[in-house]
Design goal:
Helices cover about 10% and strands about 45% of the residues. The longest helix has 6 residues. The protein is mainly beta and about 350 residues long. Strands 1, 4, 5, 6, 8 and 10 form a 6-stranded mixed beta sheet that branches. A 6-stranded mixed beta sheet has the order 14-13-16-21-18-19. Bound molecules: copper (II) ion (CU).
Length: about 350
Amino acid sequence: MMRKGTALGATMLSVSLILGACGSTAAVTDVGKVKVESVSSTADVKVYAPHEGLNQPPVPVEFERVGEHEVNIKMTSQITDIEIAKGKMYKAWTFNGEAPGPLLVVNEGDLVNFTLDNIDPAVPHSMDFHSMHVAPNVGFADVMPNEEGTFTYPANRPGVFMYHCATAPVLEHIANGMHGVIIVKPKNGYPTDNEVDREFVIVQNEWYKENDLDDMTNGVPSQVVFSTKALNEGDLNTNGDTFTLKDQPLVAKVGEKVRIYINNVGPNEVSSFHVIGTILDDVYIDGNPANHMKGLQTVMLPASGGAVVEFIVTEAGDYPFVTHQFNHATKGAVGVIKVIP
Ligand SMILES: [Cu+2]
């Protein structure tokens, strides 16, 4: 990422930086020619003292189409409190005050001019789009507190891609909330486009003990959650929590073919995405029309993996969607599609 504002020296991204922890004790081992650091203690919390009591209001993402095949996107990295379970707040590290971050939708072939405005007063952040070919140390380099960074790359493969902060220690940044989804719409659409009546976006993520890198590394998630992101103006747009998609179901009508764009942003766990009471008639793994599968009961989403899934709801009623790893469903990863006559 090219920096604007005061440059603080080039940030080289390396394997040791990706895995290394700021202010923590790290063991260094040689793996081949690459030094790999493994985190062995919780990050020094004093580094984050400026976050105490800080709750930055969400800043809307700036998205502007500036040409037939060119968009400008400006996002913030910021510290915002998120309610992850009823009454349980989490001081999240976020993009634009949402966790997962705002949904981005571009077209295959678009040139993306991306700017990250880091308004976190204490910690560098960055952006890694899985939808791009780019030298990571150039495009995805750190942006220092109170600075902006920018890069331009084409989105030249269709799909439902994860984006995330790539600043070391990456696990801490992702698990604290710095993840989201960018949909790159296929140039020629999906072969089932004209069968689809209704579309939703769902994201799965995990929460750990707040800002506890040791728990993120060695523990198990406290919550595994779904969120939905607004595809169109007026659609429900939520953070990853245990309750909203149970209290405010998504709504479809009997006989409709429903499409869900889904991504599992992790950071650590696999999702076994399943909709109870139906069969996934058409599935496009990672959202690429070339990866067309038929008749799946469950779609496997690796950490960072996406899919487009389509199914018909034949009767009125409540259709829960879950990760079929039921320990995770029990920790929150259940939502509901209410099917009405
Ligand atoms: Cu970050």
